[in-house]
């Protein structure tokens, strides 16, 4: 004759698993809500020593995306690698969007100022966006390198910079003030973390997927038509 079993512990276990699952779902939803939280801000930047950021796209584009990023920020690299190419090829190239990059090196990221300055020196030769891509794509390498300056110099060579001009630019620290001015402008707008975006006057924080960017662009387009 089969022995009866006390199933109470089994059902208690199931209940605990269910409660844990519901808690995980709630936490995930709460986290997503925090990441997608947005607020209205003044889309007109305050003075940044005459520097308006690194820009690609048509001056007549109806919507502008302003990105505040830190080159040592993992979420910024994630956005640049996964979402950036689609924005360039599908939104910027079509004339719908103008993309403005603002330097926002975060305190505590020891190598970030070096990377931002290297990108600015590349921008001096018309290669900012190429250098930006190299820096973000290789973030895990130069951030951990004992000599990140040498590693980043390799990226400057790879994008075809005049290395004499690049070296002079780096030695003279030509863009330190410009980068700090950009950071201060971001603070004035309300930026506290990276990546952050201002799209049609709406400040959004986090590494946005392409579909979310499109939704925000469409919102800005509708607002512009009203």
Protein model, in words:
With 226 residues, the chain is of the alpha+beta class. It has two domains: 1-35; 39-225, Glutaredoxin (3-Layer(aba) Sandwich). The protein is 55% helix and 12% strand. It has helices at residues 8-35, 74-82, 84-92, 112-123, 128-137, 139-144, 148-158, 163-172, 176-189, 210-225; strands spanning 38-40, 54-56, 63-69, 97-103, 196-199, 202-205. Helix 4 runs antiparallel to helix 5 (128-137). The longest helix is centred in the first third of the chain and has 28 residues, at 8-35. The protein is globular.
Give the arrangement of secondary structure elements.
Elements: H1 8-35, E1 38-40, E2 54-56, E3 63-69, H2 74-82, H3 84-92, E4 97-103, H4 112-123, H5 128-137, H6 139-144, H7 148-158, H8 163-172, H9 176-189, E5 196-199, E6 202-205, H10 210-225
Helix pairs in contact: 4-5, 4-7, 4-8
Q: What is the strand tally?
A: 6
Radius of gyration: 23 Å
Strand content: 5-15%
Mean pLDDT: 83
Shape: globular
Question: Can you count the helices?
Answer: 10
Going across the major beta sheet, what is the strand order? 1-6-5-3-4-2
Domain module tally = 2
Structural class: alpha+beta
The residue ranges in which pLDDT falls below 50 over 5 or more consecutive positions are: 1-5, 7-37, 41-49
Assign a percent range to the helix content. 55-70%
Under CATH, the topology of the largest domain can be stated as Glutaredoxin
Largest sheet: 6 strands, mixed
Write down the secondary-structure element order.
Answer: HEEEHHEHHHHHHEEH
Please identify the top-level CATH class of the largest domain: Alpha Beta
Examine the secondary-structure arrangement and name the CATH architecture of the largest domain.
3-Layer(aba) Sandwich
